[in-house]
């Protein structure tokens, strides 16, 4: 049975709806970033660029770095965008867009997020590189999918109990990154971490400019949470969705985080651009190693 036009949506040129990409335009190693401008900061290191396309916040370049074909694509901010980005990346490799049928033989992508983050721990200062071994999603995205076999329910339950998590918020979920990619991207210049993925940057990360939040202790409670020695290291807005969607769809994913803010000390990075370029080159070289 073929997928209906309302479900698998294609543009007039046959490209997938939001990303605007055709299957042959995607490499099987995909770097995702939040910021559309960061795509240029990565592809400027490529030997050659074969494709540049932008639709909405999804800015995509495909090219080669030291001989390896890589796609770099921005997702914009938040796991609502990640639901779209990961589903459509998967459709490009695992659905025959012309026949509108799922392929018999499935392809697994390597997905590497390169993003920015806020540390919740004094001992993880600004400019650190965190490799997310685990993600805790505050966003609820995974509850909209049937397969929950990969979720670490006992860790989520311990988090809810220890932090007295409000039942007005989505029930948190915990998911592991790809062991293969975590090892590939880790070294003595990175810290392995447990990344909290929030639904926003201000209130959801307990930042107060003018609008107050119900719990001023929230980030302390998050930092104090511990499960068999596992502690949350940092907060951002995409990793849990990338890890969860990758598990459901059979892809490998790792999230690499540059610490810009230290929420425990109140500091913010002074050399964000320089440090992001360092993280980009570090990731590119580990990917091709
Ligand atoms: O730097 P990026 O990849 O956008 O990631 C982080 O920065 C944004 C917030 O400033 C959120 O998307 C968060 O996850
Ligand atoms: O504190 C921070 C810094 C970057 N990105 C986030 O989501 N939070």
From TrEMBL:
InterPro entries: Nucleoside_phosphorylase_d (IPR000845), Nucleoside_phosphorylase_sf (IPR035994). It catalyses: uridine + phosphate = alpha-D-ribose 1-phosphate + uracil. Residues 30-272 form the Nucleoside phosphorylase domain. GO terms for molecular function: purine-nucleoside phosphorylase activity; uridine phosphorylase activity. GO terms for biological process: purine nucleoside catabolic process. Its EC number is 2.4.2.3. It is an enzyme of class 2 (transferase). Gene3D superfamilies: Nucleoside phosphorylase domain. GO terms for cellular component: cytosol. Pfam families: PNP_UDP_1. PANTHER family: FI09636P-RELATED, URIDINE PHOSPHORYLASE. This is Uridine phosphorylase. It comes from Christiangramia gaetbulicola. The lineage of its organism: Bacteria, Pseudomonadati, Bacteroidota, Flavobacteriia, Flavobacteriales.
């Amino acid at each position: 049975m073929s997928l209906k036009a309302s479900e698998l949506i294609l543009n007039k040129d046959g490209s997938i709806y939001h990303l605007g990409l055709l299957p042959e335009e995607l490499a099987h190693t995909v770097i995702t970033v939040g910021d559309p401008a960061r795509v240029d900061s990565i592809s400027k290191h490529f030997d050659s660029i074969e494709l540049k396309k932008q639709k909405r916040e999804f800015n995509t370049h495909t090219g080669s770095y030291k001989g390896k074909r890589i796609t770099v694509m921005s997702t914009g901010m938040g796991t609502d965008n990640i639901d779209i980005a990961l589903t459509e990346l998967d459709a490009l490799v695992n659905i025959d867009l012309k026949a509108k049928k799922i392929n018999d033989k499935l392809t697994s992508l390597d997905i590497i997020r390169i993003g920015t983050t806020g540390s919740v721990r004094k001992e993880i200062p600004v400019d650190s590189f965190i490799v997310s071994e685990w993600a805790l999603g505050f966003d609820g995205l995974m509850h909209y999918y049937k397969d929950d076999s990969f979720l670490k329910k006992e860790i989520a339950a311990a988090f809810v109990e220890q932090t007295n998590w409000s039942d007005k918020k989505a029930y948190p979920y915990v998911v592991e990154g790809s062991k293969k990619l975590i090892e590939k991207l880790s070294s003595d210049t990175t810290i392995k971490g447990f990344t909290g993925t929030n639904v926003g940057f201000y209130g959801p990360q307990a930042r107060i400019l003018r609008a107050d939040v119900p719990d001023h202790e929230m980030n302390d409670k998050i930092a104090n949470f511990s499960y068999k020695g596992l502690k949350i290291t940092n907060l951002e807005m995409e990793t849990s969705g990338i890890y969860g969607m990758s598990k459901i769809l059979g892809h490998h994913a790792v999230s690499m985080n540059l610490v810009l803010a230290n929420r425990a000390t109140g500091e913010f990075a002074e050399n964000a651009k320089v440090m992001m370029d360092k993280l980009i080159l570090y990731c590119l070289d580990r990917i091709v190693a």
